[in-house]
Amino acid sequence: MSSQPTAKADGTVLTGVSETALMTLQVRANEARRPDSIIDDPMAIQLVDSIDFEWAKFGFSRRQDMAVRARAFDTEARRYLTDHPKATVVALAEGLQTSFYRLDAAGVGHEFHWLTVDLPPMIELRRKLLPQSDRVELCAQSALDFSWMDRVDDTDGVFITAEGLLMYLQPEEALGLIAECAKRFPGGRMMFDLAPAWFAKGITSGMLRPTVRYRVPAMPFSLTPSQLANLVNEVPGIRAVHDMPLPPGRGKAFNAVLWTVQRLPLFDPVRPITALLEFG
């Protein structure tokens, strides 16, 4: 007798900013399916195949930008874990990222711990669809509820990620979160990304949207490279600020544009930011 197919999880339980996690997951999974993929992410493929959702509403998804971003975060987390193998990685508003599983297979050992902080519907999806590990703790609350910090054992180091989060916060919320992390976790690091102001304004106004059926939530927070660099002077506890270049992707044309935009100051006002903060 054949077994009944397993029912898929309902992706429509995610709304607002949480729904964007489905879009980034789809892009990353499509990239991972390619024979010439720039990211090894079987868990992303498994997640997409396990979720019932009208994926077409997001429009074009055969692109590599989300995989490049994921690789950037993986690279810095891996570098930190190489020096702090028993550290805790805190993934704020992790969504449907699968970073833990990629890093766990990346040769940094299996001693680091992971804390996922996200809203209850997302945590429920992760609990239902992803393999459980005694090194992964799920915290069902907003990243702006700072009580999650009480769960972090910072004895062996802390690496905080806010991948795809801060741009959706109000400026005072984003800066307040950064300041509190700097205050609570001296010696730790924090990594986040931001869209450029022109793009954020287009998204917020509705002028830029993937399809007529889907509108990305407003992005009220952005920083220029010079504003980012000045955080070291404005936020107590920040010891150093790094404006990180994204890693190469696939294709000579893509990489030529990426290299040019990231290295010529002329493009500073219009390029996205990937930031790494060191707390002292």
Automatic annotation (TrEMBL):
An example Gene Ontology molecular-function term: methyltransferase activity
Q: Which UniProt keywords apply?
A: Methyltransferase, Transferase
Source organism superkingdom: Bacteria
Share an example GO biological-process annotation for this protein: methylation
Among Pfam families, the record links this protein to: LCM
**Ranges that cross the membrane:** none
UniProt-listed InterPro entries: Ppm1/Ppm2/Tcmp, SAM-dependent_MTases_sf, TcmP-like
Name of this chain's protein: O-methyltransferase involved in polyketide biosynthesis
